[in-house]
Design brief:
This protein is α/β, with parallel strands linked by helices. The chain is built from 9 helices and 17 strands.
């Protein structure tokens, strides 16, 4: 039992403690022997967490120390200052462990995201962690106490995710903030680390469609989504002296989940085979890809020429121009190691843009330019191919 009480003398402040990762962290730190100051924007949720810890406020003393619930909006500097003052007054000492779990999402694609949704996410996820880290560090330095500050970031902060420009930016900022704080505060005996969860089962992920969860689960080598307790285990380690020489680290808890948007891409050869299977006397096969995604071109077994016709979705208004990114124009010097060439041709009688992708490998990205924004393009290519392009 003694080996489990690594935090017997510690006071831990946990923000976002009312649910999900924050609640799991609070439970784990209390199990390790810490007194927990559970803070949440929802005071009732924070009080419920305290009840689960075995205490009902600062007057109740749990077996390993007192626990108390606090309410604060971490995006407000005044609220954060009052929170730290209240915690110190309640426990007669500053928190030696500070875990910032508070966070929100306001998902939308970049082209449609509002300034308000951007500002809200940055205010809570990045500014909030800055304010808590700063206030806690000031209190620890002025008191001459050592401590461990742990900020919850996300793997999205490293690899991005479609529809989460604001969230990814905020979490990337947390990583940089934490590493810089570690450099500045190390001489005061304060360690700063960040934890980067992957797809964890929390109230946030309950909003994700099941088919998306199934796809994500299928891409995780460990075969399942993570639990909040998986993150809490890492936090407990970073809070304890077992990690006494670790600072400025960014610890991933992902089950080795691939990068956001890491879907299995079809190679050029795979698409040709699919096109041949689908054709029944027709001269063309079809495949649809979401706008903004790429087509992965893998070198075919022999020199080959792919003829492409890029057309707007039939349900969308006609578009007269498209923005197509390619590594180089068509030439005759391609080898298996060079990216595909692309030759764009416009004809007055057609509103489609035609191109020829030649032997090679690389990424061809397509995105729309113009007033309308169709959800998809159709990629049409013939079933026949040759060793030379005309």
């Amino acid at each position: 039992m003694a080996s489990q009480l690594r935090l017997r003398s510690a006071l831990a402040l946990v923000t976002g403690a009312g649910s999900g990762i924050g609640r799991a962290v609070s439970v784990r730190l209390a199990r390790e022997g810490a007194a927990v100051a559970a803070c949440d924007l929802d005071e009732a949720a924070a009080s419920e967490t305290v009840r689960l810890l075995g205490g009902r406020g600062s007057e109740e003393v749990a077996p390993c120390g007192g626990h108390a619930a606090f309410q604060a909006d971490v995006s407000e500097a005044g609220a954060v200052r009052r929170l730290l003052e209240q915690v110190q007054a309640c426990f007669s000492r500053p928190p030696s462990v500070v875990v910032s779990c508070a966070g929100i999402t306001r998902d939308e694609f970049l082209l449609h995201m509002s300034e308000d949704d951007w500002d809200k996410v940055i205010a809570v996820n990045l500014k909030g962690i800055f304010l808590v880290t700063q206030a806690a560090a000031q209190l620890l330095v002025s008191s001459g106490c050592h401590g461990s500050i742990i900020n919850i970031s996300s793997i999205t902060g490293k690899v991005g995710n479609m529809g989460q420009t604001n969230y990814a930016a905020s979490k990337a900022g947390v990583i940089g903030l934490t590493q810089t704080a570690a450099r500045e505060l190390g001489r005061h005996g304060i360690r700063c680390n960040s934890v980067l969860p992957g797809f964890i089962t929390t109230p946030m992920t309950q909003k994700v469609p099941q088919k998306v969860l199934d796809k994500v689960t299928g891409m995780i080598p460990m075969g399942h989504l993570g639990d909040p307790e998986d993150v809490a285990d890492v936090v407990a380690f970073l809070a304890s002296e077992d990690s006494g020489y670790i600072t400025g680290a960014s610890v991933e808890v992902t089950g080795m989940r691939p990068s956001w948007g890491g879907r299995r891409q079809r190679s050029g050869t795979q698409m040709i085979r699919e096109s041949k299977r689908r054709e029944s006397g027709a001269t063309k096969g079809r495949a649809e890809v979401p706008i903004g995604e790429g087509l992965n071109w893998a070198p075919p077994p022999q020199p080959i020429c792919l003829h492409l016709c890029i057309c707007p979705n039939v349900s969308a208004p006609p578009r007269r121009s498209f923005h197509v990114t390619a590594s180089r124009t068509l030439d005759s010097a391609h080898s298996p190691t060079t990216p595909p060439g692309l030759l764009l041709m416009r004809t007055p009688s057609s509103q489609a843009t035609k191109g020829v992708a030649v032997y090679g490998s690389g990424m061809l990205n397509m995105g729309g330019r113009g007033a309308c924004d169709p959800n998809k393009f159709q990629i049409l290519f013939p079933a026949t191919s040759g060793s030379s392009c005309v």
